[in-house]
Specification:
Number of strands: 11
Number of helices: 10
Radius of gyration: 23 Å
């Protein structure tokens, strides 16, 4: 008898939950994201603390994997909301017209189309291990090009542009300063110095620099800032070529009548409530009223003169391949 009562109670509870779901019409928002752990944690914290806990499913993807889904599936993609590299969002919109114009205002310091707004910005820098430099009596580099100095042979780690867009920040800086031919020459020297330490992961170089396996390389500036502040033997140099920038943004999938209205609210929440935490890990000002400590601010921030697209990325990847 007790078992029967428990079964009836369970069925009643399930019916109540189902009925409630049907009455409210709320469906969980599916979020696809290429964000690193720090940004994903901040985004989810903002959602959970502002009434959206349990109302979304957050799925992480690599940049190339998620980019492939955007191009192949268009607005038929399962996601309702994405956070993704801005250049991929723009290229996917050009191909598929798949994003809805945002319905909230943002006071950005950089101009973007109406269908996305930046969540964070990534900048590159030359990163080095202070202990190894002292032990080897290496000269401090001033530029990205200096990483190709033969004195650093076998003590360099950088990212392969075929593996991660972190390397694109390096390639953009070299092309901007030296032109394509000069960039190819500089890359050839850098790759020769790197040898087996040419990484496919964006965080690969800094991991080897931390461990002292190599002395220096190119990577994400905010990671070096964090390591230095945490007392690790890591320091960084803002290169003479500039700290080039890639943004990652939020965008809502346009699905007509099937568009989940909560997706737009969550996009707004991530920007308005999540940026306070996100900017601590990615110290780049993107909106009016924001600020970062002077020590954390890049001294030579730049953006590439040409619009960033997947087509331009492929062109620069080909240039990089020709330098190997």
């Amino acid at each position: 008898m007790k078992k029967i009562v428990l079964m009836v109670a369970a069925i009643s509870t399930l019916f109540a939950i189902t009925s409630c779901s049907k009455k409210t019409g709320e469906k969980q928002v599916i979020i696809y994201s290429n964000a690193d752990d720090e940004a994903a944690i901040s985004a989810k914290k903002a959602l959970d603390e502002n009434g959206f806990e349990g109302k979304y499913i957050f799925q992480s993807f690599g940049t190339s994997e998620l980019g492939g889904k955007l191009f192949a599936e268009g607005s038929a993609i399962e996601a309702d909301l994405i956070t993704m590299s801005s250049f991929f969002i723009e290229s996917a919109q050009n191909a598929n017209k798949m994003f809805k114009d945002l319905e909230f205002e943002t006071k950005q310091v950089i101009k973007t189309p109406a269908f996305y707004t930046p969540m964070l910005a990534l900048q590159g820098a030359v990163i080095y291990n202070t202990k190894v430099f002292a032990e080897k009596n290496f000269p401090l580099p001033k530029s990205i090009k200096d990483i190709g100095n033969p004195v650093y042979k076998d003590w360099v780690s950088v990212v392969d542009p075929m593996g991660s867009t972190t390397a694109w920040l390096m390639v953009q800086a070299l092309i901007d300063s030296y032109g394509e031919d000069g960039a190819k020459e500089a890359l050839a020297a850098i790759y020769k110095n790197a040898g087996p330490h040419l990484e496919l992961s964006g965080s690969g170089p800094i991991k080897k620099i931390r461990a002292g396996e190599v002395a220096l390389g190119f990577g994400l500036r905010h990671q070096a800032v964090r390591d230095k502040n945490n007392g690790l033997p890591i320091d960084f140099i803002d290169p003479t070529e500039g700290n080039f920038t890639l943004t990652e943004s939020v965008a809502v999938i346009e699905k007509g009548k099937k568009t989940n209205p909560l997706a737009m609210q969550m996009a707004q929440c991530i920007i308005e409530k999540g940026r306070a935490d996100i900017i601590k890990d990615y110290p780049v000002v993107l909106y009016e009223g924001e600020s970062v400590d002077e020590d954390n601010r890049a001294t030579n921030a730049k953006v590439f003169a040409e619009a960033l697209t997947t087509e331009l990325l492929k062109k620069h990847q080909a240039l990089s391949e020709s330098a190997k």
